[in-house]
Automatic annotation (TrEMBL):
GO terms for cellular component: nucleoplasm. Keywords: Coiled coil, Metal-binding, Repeat, Zinc, Zinc-finger. This is RING-type E3 ubiquitin transferase. Belongs to the TRIM/RBCC family. SMART domains: BBC, BBOX, IG_FLMN, RING. The lineage of its organism: Eukaryota, Metazoa, Chordata, Craniata, Vertebrata.
Length: 577
């Protein structure tokens, strides 16, 4: 093997512009925040100090070897081997991303050393870029160049001498300033005196010369400078496949940030709308509340004035009555016959007049004031508001019933009517919520009431429906506030269910049956040529449309056909065309 003297591609390069050598993300441990000390590279590509990793709490996991193979048919021997393959695996969690890190047999110290991080730490440790770094050969002068083959930092004088020597004249010299690789040679962990310059393809790891003649004797090995292109290209290929994902993820995160920003703006805008709406609605509700309270106060004043007026009138009438009664009693008990006769005319006239005075023994007003919180009360400040105060009171004696089914109904068919609730003045209540009770019972089965449904139309009317199961006479009771309304109770005659026509409403049998000879009609008409049904202008045809099953002329009517099954099948043939 001969080592080609070429600069290792991808491992020597200038730092990007604007990137400081003392970048804390490259030189400081994310766990202890100090400069890296023996940094280890984790499988998740995060670098942590060896000491920090050793301080992490390990945990045990079960490592199943060969879990992807199908072993269901291998027999008990393989199953025994499989049971032995379940080995406990020690792991830790990355302190940066919490990824699981399965530790190798040697523990934390067996993890890969991050030499790149060690080089960055060395760069940051320098006072300047190359200030303070002395030549590796003479040890006196300041470093200017670095031999990429010898991995030695040289001063200007030693660099000239290095180039004049025959063995080192072809070595690549690079200016130390502005480059990121100034570390010393990486030595073999198994042979500390030897530098890692070779690469074992079989074991896929760098080795030294002693490794090649020992453990890796028959393994394919080559100098790192010769294999770096192949392995570097494979890494670059993976990098090219990864970079689009980075760009896609950055784009996705940018969209998420933009969506989050738009979401925050939208939330703020909607919150402002909610606050504006709520504040306006609160003002509208408060204004509506004040109106309702003012209306309630006016109702109170009106009712109290009416009560005070009635009270004053009754008190005056009572005083007049007492005066007349007291005077008359005194006259009858203490007056002489002549005195009674003399004053009789005045007393009789006064008492007669008092007896003729009309008055109500009940208060002229009542305390009926009702608040309906769910009743629409129009709009206030542009908002729909609810809640209305009403002094109306339903009067059962003024409530009326309307509907076609008040007198008759059919069995197993829904019968209905409408209840109109009104107040004492005969005015519609205009609202719902009243206590309505409807009872429908057959006269011959008082203990078997029919189920009824009362639908509140919210406008003072109520839709009542029920379905009688049998024919007969039924009694219907409609009560409002436990009092019968006008016309309640009343009776309903339930007849048998309306019979629909099994035939067809046609002009003639010949037309409706498509010329079938065996089709018949209830009208009894026939046609020459063996036709058993009627036809236009032929014997028995009624001269107008009629039902084939019963012969009725009215299309919307009840069927009265009472023939047997055989006749029914014959007549029904006219239905199928």
């Amino acid at each position: 093997m001969s080592e080609k003297r070429k600069p290792p591609l991808g491992f020597v390069g200038k730092l990007p512009s604007g990137t400081a050598l003392g970048n804390s993300g490259k030189t400081h441990c994310p766990s202890c925040m100090g400069l890296f000390k023996a940094p280890r590279l984790l499988p998740c590509l995060h670098t942590v100090c060896t000491t920090c990793l050793e301080q992490l709490e390990p945990f045990s996991v079960v490592d199943i070897r060969g879990g992807d193979s199908d072993t269901s048919s291998e027999g008990p021997i393989f199953q025994e081997l499989e049971a032995q393959s379940l080995q406990p695996q020690i792991g830790i969690l990355c302190p940066v991303c919490d990824a699981q890190v399965d530790l190798p047999t040697g523990g934390v110290k067996a993890l890969t050393i991050d030499h790149l991080a060690m080089n960055d730490v060395m760069l940051e440790s320098l006072p300047g870029e190359s200030q303070g770094l002395v030549c590796d050969l003479c040890g006196d002068r300041e470093v200017e160049k670095r031999c990429q083959i010898c991995k030695a930092n040289l001063c200007h004088f030693c660099c000239q001498a290095h180039r004049r020597q025959k063995k080192t004249a072809h070595h690549t010299m690079v200016d130390l300033k502005g480059y990121s690789r100034i570390g010393k040679a990486i030595l073999c962990p198994a042979h500390p005196a030897e530098e890692l310059r070779l690469f074992c393809e079989l074991c896929d790891r760098p080795v030294c010369r002693d490794c090649v003649v020992g453990e890796h004797r028959e393994h394919p090995c080559d100098f790192t400078s010769n294999v770096i292109h192949k392995h570097g290209d494979s890494v670059r290929e993976l990098l090219r496949g990864t970079q689009p994902h980075v760009e896609a993820l950055e784009g996705a995160l940018a969209q998420i940030r933009e969506t989050h920003r738009a979401l925050q703006e939208r939330v703020e805008a909607v919150a402002a709308d909610v606050r504006t709406f709520s504040e306006g609605y609160i003002k509208a509700i408060e204004e509506h509340r004040d109106r309702l309270l003012k209306q309630l106060e006016d109702i109170q004043v009106q009712k109290e004035n009416a009560l005070q007026l009635q009270k004053a009138q009754l008190e005056q009438l009572l005083a007049d009555m007492r005066t007349g009664v007291e005077f008359t009693e005194h006259l009858l008990t203490s007056g002489s016959d002549l005195e009674i006769l003399i004053t009789k005319g005045v007393v009789v006239e006064r008492l007669t007049k008092l007896n003729q005075v009309g008055y109500s023994a009940r208060p002229g007003v009542n305390d009926r004031i009702r608040f309906s919180p769910r009743e629409k009360a129009g709009r206030c400040r542009g908002y729909e508001v609810y809640g209305a105060i009403s002094t109306q009171e339903v009067d059962p004696a003024k409530c009326v019933l309307q509907g076609e089914d008040l007198q008759k109904a059919r069995e197993k068919q829904t019968a209905s009517f409408t209840l109109f609730c009104k107040d004492a003045a005969g005015e519609s209540m205009g609202r719902g919520g009243d206590d309505i009770r409807v009872t429908v019972v057959p006269n011959d089965k008082k203990d078997s009431p029919v189920r009824t449904t009362v639908q509140d139309n919210k406008d003072g009317t109520y839709y009542v429906s029920y379905t009688p199961k049998e024919p007969g006479v039924y009694t219907v009771l409609v009560c409002v506030k436990e009092q019968h309304v006008q016309g309640s109770p009343f009776t309903v005659t339930v007849r048998k269910r309306h019979r629909s026509h099994p035939g067809v409403f046609h002009c003639c049998t010949f037309c409706s049956s498509g010329g079938q000879k065996t089709a018949r009609c209830a009208c009894g008409g026939t046609m020459p040529g063996g036709y058993l049904g009627c036809g236009h202008g032929h014997r028995g045809h009624p001269g107008r449309p009629h039902w084939s099953c019963c012969g009725k002329f009215t299309e919307k009517s009840e069927c009265t056909w009472t023939g047997g099954p055989s006749t029914a099948r014959s007549l029904l043939r006219t239905v199928a065309l």
